[in-house]
Amino acid sequence: MKDLWVSGKMPYCPRCGIKLPEEKGARFCPNCGSPIPRSLLAEKRKISRTNVVRERIPVFLIIFMLCLAATAIGALARVDRSEATRIFREIEEQTESVKNTGFQSIFTNNLRIMVVMFIPIFGPVWGFIVLYNTGRVLAVFSMFYGIDPSIIFLSLLLYPFAIMEYVSYALAISESLMLTRSIIKRDFKNGVIVALIVMAICIIALFLAAIIEWFYISAA
């Protein structure tokens, strides 16, 4: 009966052959009541972790492209001269502040933005608005320096810290969607655990990105 334990990488009851539930807390076969062997429990946990990663990859890739698209749309949008002047002055003030305070201010600002993106429903909306406004900042640079906005947008992607930030934001937004799905499926606990793990990864990425960005700013 051992060949019934795993079939096509899917665990089955070694006694009756029924497909076992994927819930982590399931320790007995729902059909015959037989206890699930420890080796099979380990296989179930392995399959569960694989599914968690596999189902998130396409969502992340789509959200990552949408994040870039939101910034590109903002970069190509027309900005009023008075508004552009105000934004440009704010950018100069922020740049001077970063030079004086170090990378901590960059990290704190990006961290605050990223954490809000994890909030179900509201987070993705907030995230795309922020990224659209980032594009408007690029549009301001385009206006003041006379450079095509599409070139400025593409040049942004050459900086490693920018890619790291976009990856973090895309992870946060995509995980917000997955967390919403977990709530609908009444699997909120497991959804929160995965979201916290993803958030920790994003925090590390934003921390490193802030150091790199500060290096570029201070060297300018």
Task: Give a quick summary of the entry.
The chain has seven helices and two strands. The protein is mainly alpha-helical. Strands 1-2 form a two-stranded antiparallel ribbon.
Termini gap: 69 Å
Tell me, what's the shape? Answer: elongated
Contiguous helical run count: 7
Instruction: Provide the structure class.
Output: mainly alpha
Number of structural units classed as domains: 1
**Average pLDDT level:** 84
Low-confidence stretches: 1-10
For the largest beta-sheet, the strand count, sense and barrel status come to: 2 strands, antiparallel
Strand order of the largest sheet: 1-2
Give Rg in angstroms.
Answer: 23 Å
Task: Report the portion of residues in β strands.
Answer: under 5%
How many DSSP E strands? 2
Q: What is the H/E string?
A: EEHHHHHHH
| Helicity range | over 70%
Describe this protein's structure.
By secondary structure, the chain is mainly alpha-helical. It has one domain. Helix content is 75%, strand content 2%. The chain has seven helices and two strands. A two-stranded antiparallel sheet has the order 1-2. It is elongated and about 75 Å long.
